[in-house]
Design a protein that fits this description.
The protein has about 140 residues and is of the alpha+beta class. Helices cover about 60% and strands about 15% of the residues. It is built from 4 helices and 4 strands. Strands 1-4-3-2 form a 4-stranded antiparallel β-sheet. A hairpin with a 2-residue loop joins strand 2 and strand 3. Helix 1 runs antiparallel to helix 3.
Length: about 140
């Protein structure tokens, strides 16, 4: 039982790390720049940003999008074009992940098909004693 809990905790931890790394990779691929805070004020601003979220800010009439990574003491910063590219990449990534999950689901169903004996051996109208005419 303890080993199952440990394995589950490890899996969740890896998934969280993988998800964060994937998001950071998508931000960089979308053109976001990595910025390291140089002053105490910048460091405080980085710490105040909501973790795991891209935040929009306005500065001197310009719009910026910031994703904080306080664990690595950096922020990913981009403008509207980079943010739009990031949103597009996220949508494509979600679609690709859904397609993979669907393919895996069908593969799992296909593998289990033999265990159920297909539609013969008691399944279907004749095997259940229903008769074809009663459908």
């Amino acid at each position: 039982m303890i080993s199952v809990i440990a394995l589950l905790a490890l899996t969740v931890g890896c998934a969280t790390t993988s998800s964060t790394q994937n998001r950071e990779s998508m931000l960089v691929a979308s053109g976001f720049k990595t910025v390291t805070p140089k002053t105490a004020v910048q460091q405080q601003k980085l710490q105040k940003l909501p973790p795991g979220k891209v935040t929009m800010i306005q500065k001197r009439g310009k719009t910026y999008y910031i994703f904080p990574d306080p664990a690595h003491n950096v922020a990913y910063v981009g403008g509207p074009n980079q943010y739009q590219a990031y949103q597009q990449l996220r949508a494509e990534n979600k679609l690709a992940r859904e397609n993979l999950e669907t393919a895996e689901m069908y593969q799992d169903a296909e593998m289990d098909w033999g265990a159920w004996g297909g539609w013969g051996a008691g399944w279907g109208p004749m095997g259940m004693g229903l008769g074809v005419g009663r459908f």
